[in-house]
Amino acid sequence: MGGTLSRFGVRFWFRCWRRPFTRRAWRTGLLRAAFLLLLALSACAASSGSGPGAGPGSGPGADNLDASMQATVSYTSTLADDRHDHRLVIAPDGQARLRLGSNRGQPTRPIGRFVGSVPAPLHQRLAAILGGAAFAAAPSQPSLVPDESYRRIQVSAPDPSPGLNKLVGEQLATPLAFAEAEQVLERMIEQLLTQPEAALAMNLVLPRSEVQAGERALLELHLIQRGGRAIRLSAPDRWGTGQGQVVAELTALRADRPVAELTFADQHFLQLGADNLTSSEPPPAGPTLQLGSGGRVQLRFQPVIDWAPGTYRIELALTLQARGEDDAPLFDGVLVSAPVQLTVLAPPSP
Q1: CA distances (Å), 276 to each of 86, 280, 298, 326, in order?
Q2: Which of 14, 60, 125, 192 is deepest in the core (most CB within 10 A)?
Q3: How many Å apart are CA 272 and CA 208, to the nearest integer?
Q4: What is the pLDDT of residues 309-345, one digit of tens each?
Q5: Which pLDDT belongs to residue 286?
Q6: Phi, then psi, of 26 in degrees rounded to 5
């Protein structure tokens, strides 16, 4: 198989393990497919068990419903990115705090902090599931290997009631009760996304979809602040340096060849920063880029594209540390753009 991806062996795959176009995409896709299948099975089980005595206020879990309503529930997931987790904490009164550390796989989402109340019916439904015998008896993975994606649901009940801690990694098939609780938690997350405290969204725009090999391509990066608190980032001319707290990496993969035929030369990485920054609107305030409530910043970069002719799928990952007006940390994470396509043309013949 000379010339194909397999020729490069372990070294290539190790480097691409964390890249969105290769192993991560396949692994995350398989995990999500399995997760959706389990959700469908749990829905079927729930519908078959409907009828008298099947509601959230009756059945085996009814005795624990009140206790579950008085518990603090936390949900942590690294399915999107094993370096930047999601964490949702729900207090007994239904007030919730959400921290999204990555939007990988869901580029329309912002990342950041969200605070609000969850709808009472969802809170009651979650309490019924977590207080039921099926969730209490569900298996939990005892440990994780390095870089293993996982989800965790913790129930911290008032003393003297014992709490619950259920961990599901890649080594354990998702228990149906866990999947049922996770479905409710995901609905809560969707509700909280409408209540940002300090969050950041991003769009990557290519004004021109074609460029000749060896020339500069114009990239526009739009950062949008969502929420009532101002956000401060390192100025873009400091990105990727020891002085900055932001790394902007552009990843490109050939989109006009079958995956099985791709080689190392078909994937490219570019850092955006002072070397290729051309403008910022509005300009940064010294070493800091500030975004007030509802603020927007448009950055333009012109990196040299010295790739082989072909069509490429491009994605930008912005790894950042966001701070408030008092310079205290607000959140960190990785903000990923929706993919765009760029066609690289062969230079004209002399």
Answers
A1: 32, 12, 15, 30
A2: 192
A3: 18
A4: 999 999 999 999 999 988 899 999 999 999 999 999 9
A5: 87
A6: -65, -45
Nearest to 122 by CA among 192, 215, 202, 63: 192
Query: How far is the C-alpha of 305 from the C-alpha of 234, rounded, in Å?
Result: 25
Q: With residue 90 as reference, give the H or E element that holds it.
A: strand 86-90
- Annotate 268-318 with DSSP letters as a single string: EEEEESTTTEEEEESPPBTTEEEE-TT-EEEEEE--EE-PPSEEEEEEEEE
User: What is the β-pairing status of strands 310-323 and 340-345?
Assistant: antiparallel
Name the DSSP letter for residue 91: -
Q: Could you tell me the CA-to-CA distances from 209 to 164, 206, 280, 286 in Å, in that order? A: 52, 6, 21, 33
What is the predicted pLDDT for the residue at 50? 34
Residue 89 has pLDDT above 90, yes or no: yes
* DSSP classification of residue 207: S
pLDDT, tens only, 140-184:
999 999 989 999 999 997 765 678 999 999 999 999 999 999 999
**Architecture of the domain defined by 23-192:** 2-Layer Sandwich (3.30)
What pLDDT, on a 0 to 100 scale, did the predictor assign at position 188?
Answer: 98
Distance from C-alpha of 109 to C-alpha of 98, rounded to nearest angstrom:
13
- Phi (first) and psi of residue 24, to 5 degrees: -60, -45
End-to-end Cα distance, the chain = 35
Residues 6+ apart with CB under 8 A from 129: 61, 135, 177, 180, 181, 184
> How many residues appear in the chain?
350
Inter-residue contact 30 to 105 (CB < 8 Å):
no
Parse the chain into domains and list their residue ranges: 23-192, 196-345
Type of residue found at 331 = F
Distance between CA 325 and CA 230 in Å, rounded? Answer: 6
Q: Under a CB-based contact definition with an 8 Å cutoff, are residues 305 and 344 in contact?
A: yes
CB 125 within 8 A of CB 99: no
CATH number of 196-345: 2.60.40.10
